[in-house]
Amino acid sequence: MDPIAHVQTAGGSYPVLCGDDAPALLAQLWDARWRQAALIGDSNTLPRFGPALAAALAPRCGEVLQLSFPAGEAHKTRATKQQLEDSLLAAGFERGACVVGVGGGIALDVAGFVASTLLRGVAHVNVATSLLAQVDAAIGGKTGVNTAQGKNLIGTFHQPRAVVIDCAALASLPAAELRNGLAEAVKHAVLADASLFAALEAWADARVGDAPLPRPLLARCVQIKAEVVSRDEREQAFRQVLNFGHTVAHAIEAASAHAVAHGAAVAIGMVVEARVAERLCGLPVADRERLQRLLAALGLPTAPPLPFAAARELLGHDKKTRAGVVHCALPERLGRMHEAAGRWTLPTPIELLAELWEPVR
Ligand SMILES: NC(=O)c1ccc[n+]([C@@H]2O[C@H](COP(=O)([O-])OP(=O)(O)OC[C@H]3O[C@@H](n4cnc5c(N)ncnc54)[C@H](O)[C@@H]3O)[C@@H](O)[C@H]2O)c1
Ligand SMILES: [Zn+2]
After folding, report:
1. C-beta of 223 in contact with ligand 1 (< 6 A)
2. Beta bridge partners of residue 163, listed in sequence order
């Protein structure tokens, strides 16, 4: 099957494959030089998807190690990483091995981080089973874990060798998780493609129940992520556009002790940051209203569930914070992000975020 996108990297490029038969796609892309394989997933994804993937790889590399850790942000930690590493080393893993992440963004971020430091770095492949991972987390090589201070504060850039989008897996994805993925899909539309945004609006109005995202829209989201990462692999500047909504989102996630999921927090964060964009870079009010309306139509939250005071301290821990000033990537209008002299973020006074945190009543 032909890839739906390619990601350009300093060292070459890698494909993003998409289909209903993930085991066959994984076997198809497998590099004959990878003599050992380990599947790493969480306690939901590994039991569900691991056996068929392992069976598909068995003819290529014999016995496939299957490792899992408990699902949830609370286990996206250095302790989990260490346990996985100990298991891989105990099993005799060598440099020519390949680690296959199987699951949502958490499993892929952890598996990629393990691969990036094991024996100073082994190959890894992502099999994305949540919508959020498919349109976002699986692509681009950011890996990492959380600490008490915040999200993803320890991690690496380590590009996968390939990405598999497992479309059939979405059948078992809980509806709330589907919505979390839709938040990142909306983000991609805001930052790069006004016509995708309009297509999402039309789909949101027409759909019945929790119907999955139509494949052409999913493919467009994947392409946007691939294009952004290809232009700026290590987030020197342009890749920061992907952080729209995330400065606020990360603070909400941490302040709520992850009771608010990443996608939901991004939805809220985009609305708050869009208000900031109205003030700082002229986002039309009508565009912010369309964004808010689309997110609500998709069943996503649009208002912070906690007061600004609860998030204030945590905003200071964001990776994009410099000298106490928060930096936000902001849209100028739907489909276009603000840029000035090669910079894709704007310094945002904490006081402005405090003022715009809640909608004006
Ligand atoms: N690396 C990146 O560039 C990047 C980008 C965006 C988000 N992220 C990270 O991704 C994480 C969020 O990812 P997520 O929303 O996928 O969360 P997740 O990995 O926790 O997955 C959501 C839940 O759905 C379950 N699940 C996944 N696929 C399933 C399936 N097909 N059937 C049944 N259950 C399934 C998981 O076990 C989990 O319980 C956050 O930690 C975030 O920081 C990383
Ligand atoms: Zn995100």
Report:
1. no
2. 16, 126
Residue 319 has pLDDT above 70, yes or no: no
Q: In terms of Cα–Cα distance, which of 59, 60, 39, 42 is closest to 50? A: 39
Ligand that comes closest to the CA of residue 153: 1
Relative to the CA of 151, which ligand 1 atom is closest? 43
pLDDT at 361 over 60: no
Query: Closest Cα partner for 226 from 2, 17, 1, 11?
Result: 17
Q: Indicate if ligand 1 lies below 6 Å from the C-beta of 46.
A: no
Mean pLDDT of the chain: 95
The predicted-structure confidence for 321-344, as pLDDT tens digits, reads as follows: 666 689 999 999 999 999 999 999
**Is 184 tagged catalytic?**
yes
Query: How far away, in angstroms, is 143 Cα from ligand 2 center?
Result: 12
Which residues are paired to 331 by β-bridges?
A: 337
Name the strand (E) or helix (H) holding 190: helix 175-192
CA separation, residue 22 to residues 52, 101, 159, 238 (Å): 9, 13, 20, 32
Q: Distance from CA of residue 114 to its chain's centroid? A: 17
For ligand 1, is residue 169 a contact (CB within 6 Å)? yes
Say yes or no: CB of residue 134 within 6 Å of ligand 1. Answer: no
Residue 120 falls in the annotated catalytic set? yes
> What is the C-alpha to C-alpha distance for residues 249 and 267, in angstroms, rounded to an integer?
8
Average pLDDT rounded to a whole number, residues 241-257:
95
Q: Quote the pLDDT of residue 318.
A: 59
